[in-house]
Prior knowledge:
Layout: H1 7-12, H2 23-34, E1 42-45, E2 53-61, E3 67-75, E4 83-87, H3 102-105, E5 109-113, H4 136-153, E6 159-164, H5 166-177, E7 183-187, H6 194-200, H7 206-216, H8 222-225, H9 230-234, E8 241-246, H10 254-263, E9 268-273, H11 283-298
Parallel strand pairs: 4-5, 4-6, 6-7, 7-8, 8-9
Antiparallel strand pairs: 1-2, 2-3, 3-5
Amino acid sequence: MLTDLGLDDLWDYRSSYVRPDDFDSFWDSTLAEARSFELKVEAVPVETPLQTLDVYDVTFSGFGGDRIRAWLRTPRGASGLPAVVQYHGYGSNRGSAVENLTWASAGFAHLQFEVRDQRGGAGFMTRGIADRSTYFYRRVFVDAVRAVDAVRALGSSDVAVIGNSQGGGIALAVAGLVPDLAAVHAQAPFLCDFRRALNVCGRPPFTELTTYIAENRRSDIFPTLSYFDGVGFAARAVAPAWFSIGLMDDIVPPSTVFGAYHAYAGPRQIQVWEHSAHEAGGSDDLDIALDAFRSRLLEKA
């Protein structure tokens, strides 16, 4: 069943989110601080049984100079390819060296980023939430931007970003923080339109925030969240973007995705899956992203 507004109302919906006056300066100074640390990209070849792909264990400096990890997969012997940086879902990780082979098999350099500290578990939505400077996602979004810096340092000038759920929210944040991306694909993007989400969503991870408010008798988390809302990043993003959402999604309310979609400053499309839940279009969304990225990156190259 529908978990949110109907499709006609979603097309009319506009988020009530208000971007803080110092949103841009906060993120500009945050990124400047992060880039004061040397990137120190290391890519160590990994032995795998794969015959057509090379795999590297990549580390680089993220927020505070902390070492962040990713897999880099490329067609065997190739270098200087257009790159796709992929961000994963909540509580997940980068997987194994021999998983997620689609993008490299399609001819891209594929950097599979790993969110710091998030190999399973929960509670990340409220970690450090008392202040914007200490909030968990400040570190994550900086790490994600530095992943783009890292893949460029490894030889890829044209870079697209992609993700589902939390990964889609991270991809939107990066699109708002990196002005020269080639393309963006956000499948059921999480971390958007927080006030709306907390009013209509009864499933984790958004309920980590409502539980925190109830247990601590405090609702003053919204000033912090306003610096991390995908709607705010969408308004800064100019790369061509492809969104997707399932109207039966009970984890990411469809209205929150439309809130970010309507605010998006660059060219945008959205694929609506009327009878899908959090998986949105699944592999069909992957086909859409492959076609879009191939025409914008590989054919250009």
